Amino acid sequence: MMWPGHGYGMFLGPIMMILLVAAVVVLAVVALRWLGRAPQGSARPTPLDVLRERFARGEIDKDEFEVRRRALSE
Questions:
Q1: In the chain, how many domains are there?
Q2: Is the full-model pTM beyond 0.85?
Q3: Pick from 40, 65, 70: nearest CA to 55
Q4: DSSP string across 14-74
Q5: 41, 52, 56, 60: which has the fewest C-beta neighbours closer than 10 Å?
């Protein structure tokens, strides 16, 4: 006894397998990107934060710090 639509499985099988593999790859990429993201609290430092760090390290003196701070606030 033959099932109706017997020949379609030979055509759709490989396509479904390719779609399944593609879906697994896409899910893996999305998961790796999601896991590799920086935490929400670690935003890029502002220019004023960088200026404060440079002053704290002694790279610039107080006068230069004040001049640059005023320039940033304009």
A1: 1
A2: no
A3: 65
A4: HHHHHHHHHHHHHHHHHHHHHHHSPPTT-PPPPHHHHHHHHHHHTSS-HHHHHHHHHHHH-
A5: 41
Domain of residue 62: give its range. 46-74
pLDDT along the chain (74 residues), means of 10: 57 84 96 79 82 94 94 88
How far, in Å, CA of 52 to CA of 39, rounded? 23
In a domain, 3, yes or no: no
Q: Which pair of structure tokens corresponds to residue 69?
A: 């701070």
- Contact between 55 and 65 under an 8 Å Cβ cutoff? The reply is yes
